[in-house]
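Help!! Second protein's tokens look totally different from the first
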Amino acid sequence: MGNNLIQTIKDHAVPLYEADDLNILLNEINDQKYVLLGESSHGTAEFYNIRSEISKKLITEKGFTFLAVEGDWPSCRQVNRYIKGWDNKNKSARDILASFNRWPTWMWANEEMADFIEWLKTYNEGQPEDKKVGFYGIDVYSLWESLDEILNYFRKTNSPHTEAAQKAFACFEPFNRKAEKYAASASFYSEGCHDEVIELLTKIQLHKTNESDSEENSLNIEVNALIAANAESYYRTMIIDDNASWNIRDRHMVEVLNKINEFYHNKAKGIVWEHNTHVGDARATDMANEGLVNVGQLLREREGEENIFIVGFGTNRGTVIAADNWGAKPEKIVMPQAEAGSWENILYQAGPGNKLLIFNRDNKHLFHNTVRHRAIGVVYHPAHEHYGNYVASRISERYNAFIYVHDTHALHPLETEQVYI
């Protein structure tokens, strides 16, 4: 299988030397509603830079209208305000990225993102208000920050829902913004705030037309209420069932994408930046055997496979920003060469240099074999890579295309104060 696959890659791969070489990928994207751009680590500069180049082309040449990332909604809202010209206080993207203070901060507070955000702002300055590109965070972790946003806005506008927001906020207050404390209380002692956040979400959804759409306030309030409800469920579940909490999180991210799409009156075309484990269809991996779903699978099922284009990313070796424990200080870690027989190793054997593979009906069957595909998270131990950093995958079913970078380098994190969850 290995030698045959090496030759098949040689026959079908396109070399990538510069940004214009990505045009062959852009030619495959026309009427799709979402383009999902992955990464095999959260700390690799080349993945961010290549995704930025693809996103610029999708925006300028294909009419894509928003970017959604694996980040917190409240922090990403600050980016959205900045690039749309609503923020008169912050002078640069680096100022804005200081709001990304939840560990792992380096995922978005980095030099690579700062450069791309400045490009988005410059692009938007030449667009009418209804054509400006948006930037949104679709993750589930910002429970307390989302409640803060709701309560502060309701108090400012004298909303009739202020009391429901205060009730939900008061319920969570004893846990000192410590997710693990709430998780233990809700899981083991049935002392949770489920009813309070559901009541708040219901009130907001029933009366959402009453909120002003100035600077997307209605969308902001509705999504923050959705986060409060889903984060409560996520934290209540995570101690007793990892698989259930994973599914809650990925289903939440799809819900938020749906809310953004509705806000754009169903004319949105979205670019999604997340880890390969979220965007690469779970049904083509051993995740499916564990009952796990992910964003790529859910979007294909909801929108139809023809409306979703998924790009996976991988590398053979290099350096990466990660930590040796959850909440620990990030560091530059040397990533060893991909293990023998893995997807990345086979790509390496197919010849040095960066490569692009596009899977279509003519060649998809040639890449149907199950191979181990590397996945590095925010916590990484190279010495133990064999046991926890490879996902068995049928590559041509998991993605529509794959970008391989031969040697990669660590992101350049910005200095920020960190809050640990």
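Here's the second one for comparison:
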Amino acid sequence: MFSPFHDAGEAPKELAEVRREDLSQLRDAEEGFALEFKVAWTASVRRKIPKIIASFSNSRGGWIVIGIADADKSVCPFSRPSADLSQTIGELCRRHVSPVPRFDVRFLADPTDDGRGVAVIRVEEGDFPPYVADGIVGIREGSTSGPATGGTLVELYEKAAGRRRAVSEFFRRTVYYPTSLDAVERPVPLFDLYLLRMGQPREILSSSRAAENERADAMRESFSQQGMECHVQHAHDSLILRASPAFSSPEAHSALELFSDDSLKLSIPAVLLEGAQRTAALEKLRGLRLHVTDDALLVDAHSTLHRVTRMASLLDRYARLRTITWQGYAVAYELEGLAGALLWSDDEIYLSYVRTRGILFCGTTDCRSRVRYLDDGAHESFRARQFAGSHFFEACGLPLGSHDPQDVELVDALLSTSLETRDET
């Protein structure tokens, strides 16, 4: 994406890299398709901001600089608003634009007066246009914004449809796990967490070896901070990182697929009860007068949750190391090879629950969640760990969000129980 700011090597700067002294680079810049200046943060500008942001989102994205005179590009600091500028602009967009565009804001304070400064807004090209501001679909036309014509509207809708197809394709990615011959009919039972970074179409992304190594090093550090080893494999368009050497043992371990745009897929094998533990669990369930077949798969709720949340915490560490915000991601989960598996816990609250309401289990063969787009302004506190832990249980039938007291008690018991498990990965 275009940037009016560059580093010493003439490489475009991201908004997070822009400093106060970089404003001098705007002296020779002109308002245009991807750049607009406003001299002050006035009531008139506040009324126009949603339409300008929407028009950039419907076009190729752009930058708005508030506190720069268009005529001579002189810096005209304005008083820092009492309310957070990012939240104020976000609220303006939520009131006037649908869907909510994706943007970021920085306030560059005057070095001699922290209470005054210049605001820089970076607007992303929208993934799902058209973005409608007060009933109007605006696009950039030269240095101004104007209403879209019929042909342009068709193009915007086609772009959104194409992006939805790309999202759907990404959520069909599957990491390879070797299986023994006697396991061919029963694939490795997996909980998958997909995090697709929205923005540039994925099919035109490319990555240098240096950039690939940088991502791999950040992921190795994330593993290290979790007290885990990281083993890297190079796939044709991604890196696959595992918690143990690939194919070194018949036991399946967690795997991460990492792409050049920092999109991620986390695949976590469910922990199944085996041997004496499984026999004891079957006996207890039958003692509750529940019909359970001898070949039933029993998922250890606490051990699997521990594995899921630990690996998802690793993603949060990676995001911090890479200074990534989750707001630019689409997220979904899926269960693979777990159809019909029963959720097991020896917690007395769980046993009491299943005695009266039946056992929780993975009831369909396509346990995939709806896609959540985290750039709609409603997910400021999103964390991969929170999403993964709660939604693993949701896929198994745990009634999240229920107002029934017994449901709430069960959710608290399974999500809050101290997790002591023999398996760390």
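Reply: Different proteins will give different token patterns, so don't panic. Residues 180-184, 418-425 have pLDDT under 50 and may be disordered.
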